[in-house]
Amino acid sequence: MDRSPRRIASPVNRTPSFEIAILTSPPLSPHHDLPPIESGSNSPNPPPPPPHSSFSPRRKVHESIVREVREYHMTTRIPFSPPPTIQIHPAPIAGPESTSSFRTNPEQEDRDDEEGNVEETVQEIELPPPEHKEIEVEVLRQSPEEIIPEEDYPRKSESENRLNQQQLETPTDRRIIFPITPFYRRKGTCSKCSIWLGALCAFFFLLSIALFLVWVITTDGFRTIGSKSTNVCNSRQCIDIAFRMSSSIDDDIEPCENFYRHSCQRYHSQTADKQLNFLSQLKDESLRTIHSLLSSEEDPRTLQKSARLSRNLYSACMNAVVRSQNAPTDLLIFVRNFPCGPLLRDCQSFDADSYSWERHSGMLDWYAGDYNLIVYNRDVHPQDRSKLILQIKPPNLDPIVGPIERDLMALAKPSPTEFEPLLQLSLRQNLLSAFARDNLLRDPRDVQSQLDEVARLMVDLYISARQSASLSPNTTYMTIGDMFQVLPQLYLREFFDAQLSNIYKWAESDMLSIQDYDYFARLSDIIAQTSRQAVANYLLTVTIWNLKQYSYSPRDQFGWRECVDQISNLEIARKMYVDKASQSMNLSKTVEFLQNLKIDFLSVHRSTPLQYLSNINRLGFYVGFPRRLQNEELIWRPVSQLSLNETDYFDSSIRVGKAERDYALSQIGTYLDSDDTTEFPITEPTMLYNSNVRAIVIPLAFIEPPIYLPGDEVPMYGIYSSLGITTFQMISKVFWQGLEKNSQLECFDGVFRGFLDANRQRSPSIEPQLLSTIELADAFKTTLYSYAKWQNEHHVHQEKTLPAFDSTDSMRSLMLTFSTMFCSGEGSEPGSDYEAMINTVVADSRMFSIHFNCNNSSRLYNRRSCF
């Protein structure tokens, strides 16, 4: 018989099997239960209890439970009928870490762990009896403070124990309630503690979410999680560059065989509207920025007057209902205020004898734009390049005639003798006929002869002005009085007095800048060979062509882009753009970087004779915007006296535009600020070279991603491959325009043709494409030199890599960022001129062959340099 001490479960951690075992086992023995001894005369007396039984924790618990059950049944008034025998099988006493098979509520494990100053509440639980009867036992258990020590109780005889056992037997219809899993409640606490605890948990849960969101927004967040290398650039700009490269590069194409296709094949797999070159991307980004400013819901009362007027003009422009009610009669009524041509239905009293084209042209000015017969503007004095003087120059008809000419060359490929007649015919059929029907409300068949005259004059002016068009046009300086004498056949005094004299009080001794003097000599011959009616109709046509953008037409594309593009040409809107960009832009670092680029260009071309480097050495840079655009008083001054109906977009927009134009001309004779120049189109993403001030103008719209600046969170190769190479390309244009380049043309000709398709290789002349290739190849070579110099000076031979391009070295990353940024729809066809240009550029670089491991049998292996 096992006499080892029995393990006693904690009074707090009782299980159902433990409670039943307490009721059915002898209370005086701490040992295992002995077999029952039958009563009889021959039965020996039971062994005396062990000496340590006088104080037993188990007995204390047992006696407490029995006493509570007895008291409960003595106080009840329900009649006690003889119950059926209830067989309660003793269960082994569970250890402190054991569990019972009768435990049905998982919450008991948590509630049983409560200790200390606790008070039990009554709970009813059903036990599975052997005879499918629900038997429940309920005992109110006393707190530890109320338990009477065992010594205070007299010893009970065996008969009394039997009595207690009988009293526990209950009738069939009476449940036995037993505190199997009591609930505990702390004394002296409120009944809503669980509610407050839940609210506290919810508060901390929401607080943790808020802190997590703050971490994601204010830091790199997930970008730093899982990074395999600490030398990976995870900034937003680097991710944008990596995404562009991943979306363009096709690794299945060997870069040493066709670098452009390797860099741009996936770019060309997109739809045509998605194949935007980087200049189109810059234009789209600037339009979106200005659109966000014009369509902002900011309280108009907090805005400056210029910003408020800009937003009102945008709202009027987007009101298609009102605009459609006034168009196109609003435009036709407006042109009646000027001398007109018989193409206009209301101009039937045209008198050719009294007509003066000089007066007509002088009155139009801004209304005819750059299509006027004589365009006047501002220039700088040759001896003092900060002083403004008057300039006259030829018209620019390329926006009108250029698309017709390109279509003609692509379809008909006319000979030199056929070119002008076919261009005139195409211009009348494909452009002017539809223009007369839609904008002049005339049947083209009724005015066909007049349209032919206009087309002929357009072709003559287009060819005459294009003969001297170049990056640095020929400029002649003379006084206004001298010009009257050398061009007597042109009545320029009448031209000035028509409009300009009211704005600029000129004198014959004032200096005048004449751009392309030969055009004005040819203009007198063209006018002499053209009827006055044709000249008047030409000026009428180009005026309506220039102003029709402000008048609503359901046939033209209309949307927020068109409205923003028109309003962005006004300085009141440009100020909003400048105010937003100036908050996060450090232009001083950019200017310093550009000056270093100029020095590096001079170093690469130091073997060139000095007379060709002098223009580069004196080259300046205007970057971003002039400070005057941040001055609200200066911007508002030109329009301060206007009384506008801001709901009439056509009238308001042309009046504001003309007021700003007149104010700019009124500044002739004054001096420019040090950061300003005569032409600074900050909303146009086009890098300009102003030969008169000998400076490169980089507008604000050009220095947005994907063009990166010093100070941006990108490696330096990202800056050299964007701002660096585009700046070197413009410097190369300035450098090569006055330099002999026949040897370079011959050298590049064979390489360039090798990348063209079979049909294009036999083209007789590809000189324009070769000139662009020379400029870009020179810029690419100089960029690699400048970046390598920067690496040596800063002892940085490997910069941070781009995400997903961990194994790409810095020089190779520079070449890939350049090539993917220069992907263009012009290279969509394999063997195109654009594809051949990019491949020829990299084939002329020895660094490309080294970093891409090109073998001497590959197409792009550098075998010689053309420079």
UniProtKB/TrEMBL annotation:
Regions of compositional bias (Basic and acidic residues) in chain numbering: 152-161
Family matches, as InterPro entries: Peptidase_M13, Peptidase_M13_dom_2, Peptidase_M13_N
Keywords: Membrane, Transmembrane, Transmembrane helix
Region Disordered, annotated ranges: 1-63, 76-116, 142-168
Record flagged with keyword Coiled coil: no
Phosphoprotein listed as a keyword: no
Stretches with biased composition (Acidic residues): 107-116
Annotated transmembrane regions: 195-217
Cited Gene3D superfamilies: Neutral endopeptidase , domain2
Top-level taxon of the source organism: Eukaryota
Protein name: Peptidase M13 N-terminal domain-containing protein
Pfam family, one: Peptidase_M13_N
GO biological process, one term: proteolysis
Organism: Caenorhabditis briggsae
